[in-house]
Amino acid sequence: xxxxxxxxxxxxxxxxxxxxxxxxxxxxxxxxxxxxxxxxxxxxxxxxxxxxxxxxxxxxxxxxxxxxxxxxxxxxxxxxxxxxxxxxxxxxxxxxxxxxxxxxxxxxxxxxxxxxxxxxxxxxxxxxxxxxxxxxxxxxxxxxxxxxxxxxxxxxxxxxxxxxxxxxxxxxxxxxxxxxxxxxxxxxxxxxxxxxxxxxxxxxxxxxxxxxxxxxxxxxxxxxxxxxxxxxxxxxxxxxxxxxxxxxxxxxxxxxxxxxxxxxxxxxxxxxxxxxxxxxxxxxxxxxxxxxxxxxxxxxxxxxxxxxxxxxxxxxxxxxxxxxxxxxxxxxxxxxxxxxxxxxxxxxxxxxxxxxxxxxxxxxxxxxxxxxxxxxxxxxxxxxxxxxxxxxxxxxxxxxxxxxxxxxxxxxxxxxxxxxxxxxxxxxxxxxxxxxxxxxxxxxxxxxxxxxxxxxxxxxxxxxxxxxxxxxxxxxxxxxxxxxxxxxxxxxxxxxxxxxxxxxxxxxxxxxxxxxxxxxxxxxxxxxxxxxxxxxxxxxxxxxxxxxxxxxxxxxxxxxxxxxxxxx
Length: 568
Ligand code: ATP
Ligand code: MG
Description:
By secondary structure, this protein is α+β, with helices and mostly antiparallel strands. The chain folds into three domains: about 270 residues, 2-Layer Sandwich (BirA Bifunctional Protein, domain 2), CATH 3.30.930.10; about 130 residues, YbaK/aminoacyl-tRNA synthetase-associated domain (YbaK protein, Alpha-Beta Complex), CATH 3.90.960; about 100 residues, Rossmann fold (3-Layer(aba) Sandwich). It is about 25% helix and about 25% strand. It contains 16 helices and 30 strands. Strands 3, 7, 8, 9, 10, 11, 12, 20 and 23 form a nine-stranded mixed beta sheet that branches. The chain is globular and about 95 Å long. Adenosine-5'-triphosphate binds next to strand 8, strand 20, strand 23 and helix 12. Adenosine-5'-triphosphate (ATP) binds next to strand 8, strand 20, strand 23 and helix 12.
């Protein structure tokens, strides 16, 4: 490709609304342009990368035996009524109505559509197991679309759905998808981690996420510093930090804590450690309010809390007014003694003694509180977020935290969808049996951003070899006027093109400095600078985008040298 025949529009300025580096660089390099909130156009340059991501995924999915297909993006509302998922997806669903007043959603995911396909198409166990996939545009009306294509509303996903007669067969394909995802991300040259995950609105019994590790990642990942254990913080088990409850030593007493509303304020005022305090949070329950209690220095896990059968979903904290009506004090003074609602405490809290909590009286706290003697809890369960330094739940080492970008999520769904939609097959005894199902998503467009997030420097993108829009850039100085520069460049261009290298020749009439910094921004891995002065000395200059030091290469040997670099 010659830049004169390509579309290359780079920008010097960092766009104002781009918070993270991948978004900034994708705009500056001209890979994407915003059309509206969470809607992006992929330019020819950006699309080349998107296609490379797609192709690697496609090759590895095919190699796993999965079958590519294509389902409609627009889905009839009735299908979603069959599974009852309209509520689960809530505002994320983009609804539309046709001229006959029939209602549809633009698909955010395709479990319903594939199950509808399979219940008609797959009737015998002899057709199983089978794994279908597609690469397609999805729409989710995200509350906060941001970070460019990282969290957009319209995006491209690879989604696969497998069907089985038995849970063992499902487990087998699920493991195959785990290794397939691992191969895909390794081929892309990304640093990633597979972690235990919460299954969210998709449901099912177990799931794992694949995270590209980057400081800007929206997810927190907990991993053991010595073992295998790794989990999204939403899912990470938080063990009790106190082995046994000590016997009470302190008297119960009430202290005034005027105007002290937060745990920090109260701890400072009473000159105690936050670890001696508990935090009581009131949320809406199935039958009236429920109190959730975590240690002062811990955070409630909203995901774990929302999974409690007693708690209403989505999780909803009581408003100040409701708290006043129920308890008679402000939110900061709620405590566990004489609280008139079910009290669910975290595992660590259950083993605390001589602790401090609100007195259920405006501006007052209780010290020396002890379970059984002064208050009772209804239930003890893991409801806090794990944090760095906690013992790893598998008993090996302690937990550390990293940030990750979720690029893939694999699920064992079991019979959730097949039961709801009556997708059955006949087994070898001729009896109807509900299908077992798995589903496997991968964020194609998000992967492009994630790759940049992990591979860049102050001057621009540093593409991993497998994703670069072009492998080699030929950067001639004075191409328009110098006969020898033009001849050398054209010959090299031809040679590389002939052997199938993705090469871009910059034949624009621009200043050398401009050209060089443009290609730093674009992140093309191998760059050859061709100028009269070096040609007179019999060589050209080579720089690798990652290392950036210039190397003199004998003019006659540059093609071989590049082939070596590209391991062709
Ligand atoms: P997230 O927690 O980031 O919202 P999710 O759990 O909703 O993701 P899935 O339903 O598992 O995502 O979808 C499969 C994959 O699609 C995700 O792993 C992610 O890579 C990608 N994806 C999901 N939502 C978006 C989005 N708004 N923009 C870009 N990619 C997305
Ligand atoms: Mg989501």
